[in-house]
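Note to self: keep these together.
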Amino acid sequence: MFPGYCSFVIDKKKCLLPPEFIMEINDGENNKFMVGLTCSDHKQKLEEKFLLLQRDNQIPQGKIIFTPIKVIQTKCVTGNQEDVDEIQLKRL
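Structure:
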């Protein structure tokens, strides 16, 4: 489960937009490290920030990868009578 918001913070204010990308670092040896989530508005700024952090050896070296988040929605089953009735109707 991911946080509901982008990882971008400026002047102690968090971005309230939903994340659209997983930010990872691939170290070239098939190891990936997730470093954050970002919305499309802050993707470039976060990439620039992480490049600076890599330059200063504060985070692992490697290629920064942005993977789009795929939203999957499911219908929640609570086990109430409505759910039981729906299951029974689909079986008939």
